[in-house]
Please model this.
Amino acid sequence: MKKYIKFLIFTITATLFVSCNSDEFLNPLPDTVIVAETFFQTDADVLSGVIGIYDAIQGVNENTQSSSVRFNRGVQLEYLLTEHRSDNTRSKTLEGSRADFHRYIVEPENIQSEDYYQSMYEIIFRANNVLKYVANADASNINKYTAEAKFLRGYAYFNLVRLYGAVPLLTKVATSDEKELLFTRVDLAKVYEQIVLDLQEGTTNLDNTHKSRASKAAAQGLLAKVYLTQPTPNYVGAKQMCEAIINSGDLALETDFRNVFYNELNNEIIFAIQYASGDPNESQGFSSEFTSYKRQGRQDGLNIVNPNLAVDFMNNGGNRTGASYAAFGDDANLPIPEDAEVIKFLPLGSDISDTNLPIYGDQPGNAGNDWIILRYSDVLLMHAEAIMQGNDTNDANALDSFMKVKVRAGFDAITDRPAVLTVNTLLLERRVELAFENHRFFDLLRLGVAHDVLGAHATLKGYTSYNIRRLLLPIPSREINLSEGLLTQNPQ
Model:
């Protein structure tokens, strides 16, 4: 799929999809509408449009375009908006707008937040564009293409509502004069209602053929997380979705934790975004940006491990610890490392076990590591969470799912099995299992402890700008300006 995506981008996107430099990326320019009407004529054309949605998620490697402008980075900057705003990681330095995230001082003008917001709406626009013309596909594929586009639209909206709150809700390609539709923020419950509808279609009309495209399991897993997150959680629905995945027999935990990240599209992966090493147009740059001791990226260490996370790994990580982070130089000699680096996504899958210096290959900035959006261990832990319904539990089924993840990490199935599974224990397990995969911030929000945990973390680190309102990112100023006053700002 990797090469196919870029073929599409070179031949279609420049004219068919709205440019990231356009003043109004939520809707197509008039000439792109004309091009779309003439392009989407066959099943192959519609499939090309579907594949093009994934490219918006994949994003543009910063090595190919300057980072000083919006350029549809897709998920490549997501760690800033998520991991950095949790207690997991931070930037190595305090320089530049990227360092604003971990200190809770992101302003409406922040370029990385603006780019992410734009990227999610680029996904939504492309999905809506496909849905507009999906009837031109072969009759046997219409339901499948429709479900796939809606899954991706639901995925983008789920990211937006968790980070920015209520947002404009577009379920069609709007025209430039429909400003109220384009820029009016819609009640959170209504956005979640649409997300659920979009994902439900995927649970009905998709199969498990793909891991790098939407699948039935991906729709079920994401829907489970939506059910757990929405304003009124649907614990029964979340449990059903998780059990549908578990009982399908299509997925399993990898025996070796490291293989989850370096044996790509393995048995544990449900949905991942693919990249290809060495090709500027197919690669990603975040793997190299995470490096610090032997700096390989354009920045100096953009996902440095906070010491309190290192402590949690030491006490609860098991065999995941050595495959998740590493300390180098003097930092390696400290009882608790202060500047450890993420190694789940080393460029080219480098092996650092026999050297004190990480070796990243010839083109670390053009890394091919896939980005994992959903994997099986996440589903097992969500299954336990759905059974818990926000409370501690001794339910055997919840404990069984929880312990499958613990046992893979090297813990004993009997002696390490808790009598009662608490919310804090579940959060801790999710923290060390899914560290650096952009889940921690959302986990804290979903389980209702974000303000307590992050407030304490901010106090410990001296981040005086933190307050509960900082749990939502500001709506980018550029969008408010384009809306001519229709789009309102989050309280700051």
Residues 111-133 form the longest helix (23 residues).
